[in-house]
Write a structure and sequence with these properties.
With 258 residues, this protein is mainly alpha-helical. The chain has seven helices and two strands. The radius of gyration is 62 Å and the shape is rod-shaped. About 6% of the residues have low confidence.
Length: 258
């Protein structure tokens, strides 16, 4: 009996232990599943947060890129001359273009720019050079007089272009005025006065020792008294220079009475 009781006790103890082990294993499995579920949830939440931050960063990067491109475009527009127009205004400019400009034929294509100018005239030569630089350039037809052509040009130009054109005309006018300046009036050279015989002999050039040089009055006639400094002789003379015979002397001579 005692052994049967022991066996019963041992069986009951083993059953209790087995029940406890089963419960512990079930609890362990539940705990593992809970932990795994929590880890999976945390992983999914982390990925979602990462995706959200990446999306936000992409939006900020695209905004920064657009802002940078806008600033670069504004900087380029500031560097352009005042007469240049933005690309988005080209359609409006074409609408506002006068009819005289719109009916003109299109500029020749780049393939035909190698051809020579239409003629040797300055106008055709300049047109050829301008079209080589920009094939889209157009030229209005100006067939009136100068003033009417200038009025037509003013209506087809913007205010900035017309002011620039006026400045160029002013410089061109100054250049033409400087080129066609009136020549200085040449002062008339008075005709050389005709010398008398006395004056010609008195003004004879060169140094000639002992040569006689007559003395003349303001009318170019010989003075009544003539003297030769080389010999010391004096004599009386007529107006034509003819020597009066017998008047030559080294003494004091008065020819007023002759």
């Amino acid at each position: 009996m005692a052994e049967e009781q022991r066996d019963l006790i041992s069986d009951r103890g083993s059953n209790v232990l087995n029940v406890r082990d089963t419960r512990r294993s079930a609890l362990g499995s539940k705990a593992a599943l809970s932990t795994l579920s929590i880890l999976v949830a945390l992983l999914i939440a982390g990925q979602a947060v990462t995706v959200y931050f990446v999306y936000q960063q992409n939006g900020q990067i695209s905004k920064l890129t657009k802002t940078s491109q806008t600033l670069q475009l504004e900087a380029l527009q500031r560097k352009l001359p005042a007469s240049a127009k933005p690309v988005n205004k080209m359609k409006m400019a074409m609408v506002n273009t006068p009819l005289a400009m719109r009916v003109l034929p299109l500029a020749p294509s780049a393939g035909s720019m190698d051809t020579a100018p239409a003629s040797n005239k300055t106008e055709d030569q300049v047109k050829h050079v301008l079209l080589q630089a920009d094939p889209r350039k157009m030229f209005p037809e100006l067939k009136d007089n100068l003033m009417d052509n200038l009025k037509t040009l003013k209506t087809t130009m913007t205010d900035v272009d017309w002011k620039s054109f006026e400045s160029w005309m002013h410089k061109w006018l100054l250049f033409e005025m400087a080129k066609n300046a009136k020549p200085e009036e040449q002062k008339a050279i008075p005709a050389e006065k005709v010398q008398t015989k006395c004056q010609a002999e008195a003004n004879f050039g060169g140094v000639h020792p002992g040569r006689f040089r007559p003395q003349c009055n303001e009318n170019g006639d010989y003075l009544p008294k003539q003297c030769n400094a080389a010999t010391g002789y004096c004599w009386c003379s007529y107006k034509n220079g003819t020597k009066i015979e017998g008047t030559a002397t080294r003494e004091k001579l008065d020819c007023s009475v002759e």
